[in-house]
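<derive_structure_tokens>
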Amino acid sequence: MTRILKILLVLIFLLSINMQAQVTFENKGTVSDTIALKKDSIQRPKLPKRAVVKLPYKPDPAKVVWMGAVLPGYGQIMNRKYWKLPLVYGGFAGCAYAVIWNSAMYDKYRTAYRDIIDNDPSTNTFITALPKGYTVETFGGMSYYTSTLKTVQDAYRRSRDLSILGSFGFYALTLVDAYVDAQLFDFDISPDLTLHIAPVVLPNSSTQLSMLGLQCKFNIK
């Protein structure tokens, strides 16, 4: 009987230890869950967004010149002067037409002049170079016509050379225009002029007396 009581007491003691361990474990889990919930419930402060400052557009003069040199007219595009594009490309088209036309006329009369002085009867392009309704005799004979062909040939050669120089000059002018526009891009050229008229006291050094007058002042905005 005594042995049975001892065994029961030991079992009761072991059961009580096991129950305390379970309660402690459950309490720890509850505390950790509570801490986790509190951490989750804490709102993180929102960082202010950085303000994006948009600077006003201003073209780089050096870049404008280089881009305009590579692609004519692109400098005007970078300066946002789109209304100048028809002038730029129209000017280049006119220069190209002048160079091509003068070169063709120079080649025509150069060939005619060479044919008339080579004494070869098979080369007679100088006849086709005559204006419609004209003959060699109309120009006063072969010698005078030869001199005329030489003069016309030299005139068209000079015109061709001037057209080429003019094309380069116009090309340089577009670059200068693009550079100046880039430099003066943010320059205020407003025509708003304000006139202020106010009375003013003018000193007179000869009489040591002051005189009244009107002062006009312009404010250029």
Q: What stands out?
A: The chain has a mean pLDDT of 76.
